[in-house]
Amino acid sequence: MKLAVSLLMVSAVLLCASVVLANGQNAAKDNKANDDKSKYNKSAEIFAELGKAPEKARKRMNPLENDPEAIAAGRLLFEDHCAECHGDKAEGGKKGPNLRAPEVQNATPGSLFWLLTNGVVRKGMPVWSKLPEPQRWQLVRYLKSLRVVQPVPAEAAIKP
Amino acid sequence: MIRLRLALVAVAFALLSPVFSLPLAAQENPYFVTYDHNLEEPGNLEVEYFSTFGTQRTGNDFHSYWTELEYGATAWWTTEFYLNAQTTFHDSTAYSGFKWENRFRPLKHEHWINPVLYVEYEDINGTDKTLKEVVGHDVESDYLTSNAEARQEHKREVELKLILSSNTKGWNFSENIIAEKNLSNEPWEFGYALGASRPLSLKASARRCTFCRQNFTVGAEMYGGLGDRYSFGLKDTAHYLAPVAAWNLPSGWTLRLSPGFGLNDNSHAFLLRWGVSREITGFGDMVRRMFGGRP
Question: Measured between alpha carbons, how far is A11 from B157 in angstroms, rounded to an integer?
């Protein structure tokens, strides 16, 4: 019985390894243009979520707008929870879109707060409601303090 | 005797060793038994080691311990693997088995109450004393059996939980409804877990600090059995109340402590739980890179 269980577990590990290996090989075959295109599409889908914020949420003002420490605290929160996906400078990373894009910088603080609270779970953006409300507002304050960096146009992104 | 415990700790820390230098302050809840609706971030792996010291009336006290590997497969699915073991004083040390759990978030947005569906498969033996959940008529006297005898009992169980959880005004309130079935023709057993917790400060500090109030989360949890399909209710069931505390260090480590107290004569009088965990960001990408794929 123990032998059977051991064999089953070894098989499961080998199966997992082979799935990861296959994924890796398939991924290596993809060209950079497809990569950029999919990243651009994903960003557009996540930015589109900002527009889905209800009116009441969109109009919410940041209660920490005048807090002198909010930006510094928000930067530390960003480093801890967001930089992994959105890049150290919020210019976009392996998984997350550019947060200096006009779509983000022109969004109201309430919309950004709403997106942080709800996430875009089907597109990989987790829900951040586990951060207390003031910390989410500190993050919003930091994001709004960043300078706009124009994203790469779609045509340029998909050029091989 | 301590070889097994060392092995579990070694598994946990071998996985952690390559990432000791990565800074990442975790934001973990302080619960040991109750689940909230916050899932692991996609691609992150959390490695956890937990211990429970339990007193045993008319028997030997015990120390159970387990390692958890918790991986965020997607933003709506977290999967977790457990290895359990225990030492019963004046008896022996025993490997108790493994568990594999999955948590799914069915709703796209945050709501007043957020449901998460939990499915677990357990392959354990009778020596399991983790008390990670209390169901059915699990009572203190069940744990009197010697390890040599308990090791003969082999259990394959499926456990389902409905996790309901809310985050409001800095508080987390979580309720878990548990249904467990031993696959060898045993009746469904039921249980519950309730938890409430809050960080000591809701605002983050503008500088990195170890002892800032925001790094400490405190609360309490209560859990117990609700009988089985044929005798649902509180009769002959055990219940516990436990204050809980977590300390999220800026280095990315989380320490947890919880003294628990039995609420009736069916319960262990005292359970002391402690744990240490560390989140590894980008673990999924690391594995993909290891096999030659793109991050």
Answer: 22
Amino acid at B291: F
Q: Which of helix, strand or coil describes residue B198?
A: strand
Which domains are assigned to chain A?
Answer: 35-158 (1.10.760.10)
Nearest C-alpha in A relative to B170: A132
* Cβ pair B274, B247 in contact under 8 A: no
ipTM of the prediction greater than 0.90, yes or no: no
The Cβ-side half-sphere exposure at A32, using a 13 Å CA radius, reads 4
Share of chain B above pLDDT 90, in %: 83
| Distance to chain A for B99, nearest Cα, Å | 13
Nearest alpha-carbon partner for A86 in A130, A30, A125, A37: A125
State residue B289's pLDDT score: 84
Has residue A16 got a pLDDT over 90? no
- Inform me whether the pLDDT recorded for B55 exceeds 50: yes
Task: Give contacts of A79 with chain B, Cβ < 8 Å.
Answer: 23
What was the pLDDT predicted at B102?
Answer: 98
CA pair distance B42, A122, nearest whole angstrom: 11
- Inter-chain contacts counted by CB atoms under 8 A, chains A and B: 118
Q: Which domains does chain B have, with CATH numbers?
A: 3-290 (2.40.160.40)
**pLDDT tens-digit profile of B90-117?**
999 999 999 999 999 999 999 999 999 9
Q: Do A28 and B292 touch (CB under 8 A)?
A: yes
Query: Would you call B17 helix, strand, or coil by DSSP?
Result: helix
Q: Which pLDDT score is estimated for A71?
A: 96
What integer pLDDT is reported at residue B292 of this predicted model?
75
Instruction: Say whether pLDDT at A13 is over 60.
Output: no
B→A interface, C-beta within 8 Å: 23-25, 27, 29, 36, 38-39, 41-43, 72, 74-76, 105, 108-110, 123, 167, 169-170, 172, 199, 202-208, 214, 281-282, 285, 287-288, 291-295
Highest mean pLDDT out of B9-23, B26-40, B227-241: B227-241
Residue of chain B whose alpha carbon sits nearest to that of A93: B295
Cβ–Cβ gap A17/B287 under 8 Å: no
| A122: chain B residues, CB-CB within 8 Å | 75-76, 108
